[in-house]
Amino acid sequence: MTVCDDHLIHFNGLSHPSLHFPSPRNHLSLVVSPLFLLSSASQYQKARPPKHHLKSRLSQPPVLTQPFEVMTSYTAFYRDDIILPCEASGNPPPTFRWVKDGRTFGSERTGSGTLEVSEDEALELYQGTFRCYASNTLGTAMTHKVHINVEAQPVLLKQQKLRREAYVGESMVLTCNPPPSSAPPQIHWMDKKLVHIRQSDRVMVGLNGNLYFANLLKSDSREDYFCNSHYIEARTILPDTAIALTVLICFHSTSCFNRMQPAKHLLFFLFLSPTPKVEWKKKDGKLDETGGHPENHNRWLYFDSVDQRDDGEYECRASNVHGSSVHSFTVTVEAAPYWVKELQNLRYAPGETVRLDCLAEGIPTPNITWSINGQPLSAVDEDTRRRVSGGVLRLTDVLLSDTAVYQCEATNDHGSILLNAYLHVVELPPQILSSDGVVYRITEGGTIKMSCETFGSPRPHVKWEGEDWAPLLSDPRVSLLTNGTLELSDVGPGDSGMYTCLIKNTNISINAHLEVFNKTRIVTGPQNVRALRGGKALLDCYFRKDPRLPRYQIIWRKDGQKLQESSPDDKYTIFANGTLKVTDVQSKDNAAYSCEVITELDQVTAIGSITVVARPDPPLDVTLSDVKDDTLTLSWIPGRSHNSPITGNMWEALKRVPADFNHLQLSLHPFCTYAFRVVAVNQLGPSEPSQPTPLHSTPPAVPHNNPTGVRSESSDSGTLAITWDEMPRRSHNGQDFQYKVLWRKAGGKTERWNHGYAKSPPFSVNNTGTYVPFEIKVQAVNALGEGPAPEAEIGHSGEDVPEEFPSDVAVRVMNRTVRVRWNEAQNVRGLLLGYKVLLSLHVQVRHLLEGKEDDGILEKTTAEVTGLQLFSRYTVSVTAFNSKGESPASPAVHFSTPEGVPGPPASLLFESPTENSMLLYWTPPLQTNGILLGYMVQYQQDSPVRMEIIGDPSVTHLMLDSLDPRSYYTFQVIARTAAGDGQPITRRNATLFDGVPPTNITVMPDKTSFNLSWVPGERERNHGFHIDFLKKTGGQWEESEIVNTSQGFYSLTGLQPGTEYHLVVMHGNSTQWESASWTLGPGPSEVSGGFATQGWLIGLISAIVLLILILIILCLVKRRKGGKYAVKDKEDKEVDSEARPMKDETFGEYSDTDEKRSESQPSLCGDSKLGSDDSLAEYGDSVDIQFNEDGSFIGQYSGRAPAPAGHESSGPASPDNTAPPPPIAPSMSSILNQPS
């Protein structure tokens, strides 16, 4: 299933054909962070009074301390779903009121404003939009709006079980229609055991809840597809009606393709077989540069956190071997409102000008509205001192009466955000809030900030002075911040001392003390160390610090990662002086190492490295000395070892010498040119080769050996072709190298040797006769002489095709077998490889090779050909052959095979249009073996056999009426020729399904009985069963009378009152149903006695166990004795009329080896089938078998549809197909296709 539609492009829960995603700022996020209307931790921008003033002397405006979460709307199903928190602090304590749809809702509250539904209130009263207001004498704060949808709990109406059927390879959609709700449910497709339906790229649940099959498999058939709707808010799970899906196997390809109409949902799901491969791409950019990534078998493109980069066009392409399909999507990223500059709590003195900034952005641009104490500005009296310009509210010449809570709300299509800010207009005396006598410490060269936070209305003005009471702002290193803080940069030891902060025009001041310390410095830092692999490395870290800073810490890092110090024997050790030791240095220790010294006020870092030693440099000055004809001495100077001792030297491709050697004596080949290079080796590996020496040549010599592999490879008649393996050039040992080739006829020791010369193989000798044996040998020769004497080999001159064909060819026909005889071929003119027997039927020819070579004598001049077609005319001829070809064919001998009975019809299918009729379809035999005269159809219920004769061989179907729908019938179809009736094709079928005991039984207890009821199965055969019951207190198993499934009710009587019974219904060896239940009334008194006192029962069980052990031992002994025996008749045995048929119309190669088949001897054990492959799997083309949970069969025997001749099974009569067992259940297709 390929999902390219807009419903499965999953963008964090939103999906539309044109997708718009609200997202703030440059990093857009689909989920907006919770907004708080007014935090109790907000800071006043102007100034803050001392804490004791805030608590005892100042009034406080309402500050919302627990606003409800940012949820513009939600759905309520129960009373406890509605809890709207509204809590606020203030002095005096605030009161609370709620407004619903613009009207006051309920009475004013004190202490807490949280809104909940009481037990006596109707839930429907809370349908609407709510907002909470918290008020005291200083103003009113308000929350944002929230909309409540009140819905009843979803309910699913009861429906009948749905049944769907389709063919293998077709697409399928199982729909899920949960009750509608403003809080959509989560959909889970499960079976009756509450196991999820497994999803894949072929089977998938869509966002609409439907279950999609791209192409059906037979394994998709099941009776229990359940769509479960999980309403999380309603705390409800609704299981939909079960859907039964039956997947049929299509035997008539034409009718199946007519059913497979083009998928109507191609826009959303591509229904194709094989399952398509899905690829995503961004048409106007790169997909990996966006936040999207494929999920759910590549069917969804999922965005975890949408931002502006995700805006653009996307394309989904689905493809398989049949082609591809493309679907495009446009994603437009938008954003809910977010704050650029938030409204702050302010305090001003009367007469000042106030500017309230409330700047918000979003896509589309949000609209900003202002309110005072919860009332929109449009509802407040106009005031010329008040101006509004977008997100800016300006108040000039403020008055004490302007003290209020101001609200700013930004709204666009994707939501709204709200802020409350308190404007306090008041006159307060100046004060310094920072502590007096604070000591500031810093190292030289740093920057220090000394705090002097003030409070008052109007805002106090501060100044700083040094110990000499001189102004400080004249120093360019000094800055005075707006909050009164003094910032001093690049401090030095001379800046130490006392500093004073005072408020102008008052005697209020505080003092601050500054101490400047010496900076920490690393005197000797880590070096760039080269270490031998497996050795150790030391990195230094010597430092100096201010003695007034006693506490410090040394940290070593490797490539930025902190090293953990270990014991002295482990990898890393840090000594008291700061030195780092690294042991067992390996390649992974190649890194940059840093030493950090950290004090209370500063830290300093130095960097070094460890480099593991490399391979050595190549040797230098490679020279040759003591040069002779076949020896010399090679010398060299070792190169640099890079702190890793050289362990050896190699001269290229020849020999390795110890490291303390710098020369080597070498033996050389004659007539060769040499150049030498030397490689140094240490623990890390070999160096690069040295520069090569000047070329050195050795003098020539006679060859030291002769070529190998001397042989004849003659292909032409009258020619002897001699060849051999060429010698390598280094073995030529001189100039004018060539080969001396010698030959003479074999067996003539007195004949002289002929010879010739050749530069390379082969060497040809003409006029030698046809297939004449020769002695041959090859010797190496150069300008200085010949090599050693060679050994002689035997070869032959070339062959020619045989001149004469085998004579006196005769045949003997035995049904499907013909035995061919001939005389031995003469004048073969080469090595006789065998004979070819050529049989032809029209234009088809079978070549049979016969012949076995043993010391040049051919043992057999006969061949037996089996598997011929009956009622056919053949010709046969024989040829002899060698490696050059075949002799002329012997004169053709004509013969014919007799007419025989036909094979069984190729297939037999059934349809059951009514309960009393059956329509039979069959296909003609694959092997007619004569002229078909018609068919005979036989069928029987028990007895007698009823028969229908069809005299027209073109008729291949028959309708049978007046059948008993409660019984099985055995059907046989037999083809007929003049030779007689052929083998039948046999099938067993019925118009009804076989019945099984009920699996769902309702038990109604009475005093001495149980009333059991069940619903009989539709279109199932009446089935008799027993109800086994056991009294749990000292009872034994008992069995009821036979009960029929069609009854639907049975009363189990004769029980004891007040007793618990265990009830079981068995089907074969499986438990079909079981339950435990009590009868009504008082229980019986306990009866003494038990199983242990029943001696006769124990003896009986012991005897049965002993008998079973004896039978098992006999079975094992018989299994060990089972043997194999040959079943093929010997060649001289008469072949009967049931000879093995040919597997196809063309002839195969004749084999002299006897075919040997084996099968095990019969076993004493009935269930043992040693050596037998017979199983239901052999009838895979005609049997459709399933199993119930108890192991019983549910299936059918359905014949195959007609197929082209030569490609379908020949039925039970075929040697490759044994007769199938009787059917287990009626035809599934006949039941499903029967009209209602």
From TrEMBL:
Organism of provenance: Hippocampus comes
A Pfam family it matches: Ig_2
Coiled-coil stretches: none
Biased composition (Polar residues): 687-696, 705-717
GO MF term (any one): cell-cell adhesion mediator activity
Bilayer disposition of the protein: Single-pass type I membrane protein
Residue spans crossing the bilayer: 1096-1117
InterPro entries: FN3_dom, FN3_sf, Ig-like_dom, Ig-like_dom_sf, Ig-like_fold, Ig_I-set, Ig_sub, Ig_sub2
UniProt name for this protein: Neural cell adhesion molecule L1.1-like
Swiss-Prot/TrEMBL keywords: Cell adhesion, Disulfide bond, Immunoglobulin domain, Membrane, Repeat, Transmembrane, Transmembrane helix
GO terms under cellular component: axon; plasma membrane
